[in-house]
Specification:
Layout lengths: L1 H4 L11 E5 L3 H13 L19 H16 L3 E4 L14 E4 L16 E7 L2 H9 L3 E2 L1 E4 L4 H8 L6 E4 L14 E2 L21
Amino acid sequence: MTGRLSIGGQVYVSDKRIVIADALYEEFTAKLTAAVEALVPGDPMDPGTTFAPLSSQAAADTVRAQIAQAAAHGATATEIGRRVPATGAFVQPTILTGLTPENPVFYQEIFGPVLSLFRAANREEAIAIANDSPYGLCGSVYSTNIGRAVTVAERIEAGAITINKPTTASPELPCGGIKLSAAAASSAIRGSRSSPTPRS
């Protein structure tokens, strides 16, 4: 959850798709929902707030429009968590399921508190879902088997992959992507000049 909802889901390196093994899907979704329920929406200046609004009303409107577009094309949008304030640039945390390649939102990035969940019957399907995207900035692989996680990570089309932790930008590592995310690396020495495809 941290890797997706940090700063209201606006972190550019956050994991936009969450691909879950079919056998773990129900348990994962239940635990995810419970974790989001524990978040406290409110004033970002209040130390007790753990879920803040987006950067602007325009940003919030864009995210809501993407949720509506996804639902209009067959996805299921399920609001979760405590009710957010009616004022301010808040968006209710939402789980999107049933996103298919025919849905335009499948190929969009959502910079807000939206958790797009995908079931995968096996490793190959999980990798295919992860890579079927025009973007390739960062990703994360979670597994109790580190060797298997490394094998999967090597096949994910992204500029940076972490294992068993959320992806975060780090000043000592280059952070550049591939596909439409193939901008110049933004950190470390590589950040001062163009880079082919750095991998961290």
